[in-house]
Amino acid sequence: MEQPSSSATEIVETVEICAAPFPQQFTQGTKTVLVKKHSKFEKLNGFAVGEMKKDATRKIIFRGYGEACEKCVSCVEVFKRKYLLGKLHQWTEIAFSRSTVVHPPEVEGGASTAIEKTLPTIFILLSKDPFPDALQTDSMQTSDDVDVSLFDKVVKSEKKRQFDQTRSFKRKTENVNKWRRQMKDSKKSYAEKKGKSEAPVAKKQEAS
User: pTM for the whole thing?
Assistant: First the structure.
């Protein structure tokens, strides 16, 4: 579970990461490279290459969730180009983690609002050894393959769903009329000046 530190007046997001959707024989004792939105390829791939150079290391897992899914795929592609010690066998799976976003109360003494959502989470297992024939799936490939765009639609669809969720929450909490056009600053300034200029006229008429 990942939870950033935050004060009571800030929005807090807690992410409960799902388990890697691979058989235990591939996950037990296997190092995982955690790819985040702002991670640097050089640092992650430096660690991964160092691990995979060891004779005792037969496999490694790359993982990214939410907006980091696409970056995770790119990171693996960069790693495969840099790894020159032999062919790698790849197994890619998509799962979903759970995120809870807590918004602070809008008024003092009010209740906080919690919103739960799912986050697409991509797991990419790279192995020096071929996977058993009994486990073969369409989501497996080798390091010679370059087409890893099968999951772009999943990521984009989830981003749109999250955007719609956030927009719906803002409308409920802020009572925003989506059909009402916002007044431009120039019009606001003109309306304020007009109101001030009409005020003395109204007072003069009352006096007469």
Answer: 0.63
